[in-house]
Specification:
Mean pLDDT: 95
Shape: globular
Radius of gyration: 20 Å
Structural class: alpha+beta
Helix content: 10-25%
Bound molecules: zinc ion
Order of helices and strands: HHEEEEEHEEEHHHEEEEE
Amino acid sequence: MMIPPDAEARRAVKPVICYPNETLPRPDMARYAAALDGAEVTARVVAPPREAGVFEVPAGQFFRIRSVQGPQVGDLNLWNARDISERFYSGKTRALHGTHVSTGERLWSSFPNLRPMATIVEDTLGWYGIDEYGGSVHDVIGTRCDPYTGNLLSGSQYHHCCHSNLTRALARHLGISAAEAEPHVHDVLNVFMCTGFTRDTGQYFMKASPVRPGDHLTFFAEINLLGALSACPGGDCSAEHSSDEAACYPLEIEILAPRPGALEGWQSPRRSGYDRSHGL
Ligand SMILES: [Zn+2]
């Protein structure tokens, strides 16, 4: 391979942030904190090990994903509860906020909507930061474990990957077939998962999640949400996924309603203002 004489100079060019996010509409975190303070739990849903739980959250309420019993990673899908063609857009969330998300950051929805679906208001793993391997928690860089990749790499037929867990849960909730539900399953927020890219080969890695029972991640629902959370067959994702090998624990989802009036003046965000003419 020919290395050009100015290779080092080309490598030395400083990076620029693709999407400086100072102009993003800022969530009013003080208002959300005050609303969460008096909020009451109205429902509890469990995602059993190697299965997914489905939940609905009205706009203006909260949902909290909690580790119970043992370290466990969860794969989260979100849809607009009234129109499931609007769904969580992990790639754009990554472009706007980075590879991993925490308090004050938002989960954005697919085109042509591109609006915040949920805002993270509490993260008990916020202390973790970025470790010496470049790993961090709650990523939007992975996809979701799925039976197709397992089949590609090892010829397996495994039915409890997060992709299938989410498909079954959505199919049952909506009363539709697996074939009808599957296209609505999308790239996830990897809740509690600790991941990064290796510095030498740029490969996606995982390591044992630092999550412990009691840890939680809490979201404010900016729009009416339908959610599905899969308790990943990888458990804490320290070694294996896409099999029944790992120790696997349930995850709990709580829905919390603020006191009446606690969000006085708050408005659910509108869909993108782009006119969609695309220059035609
Ligand atoms: Zn998984």
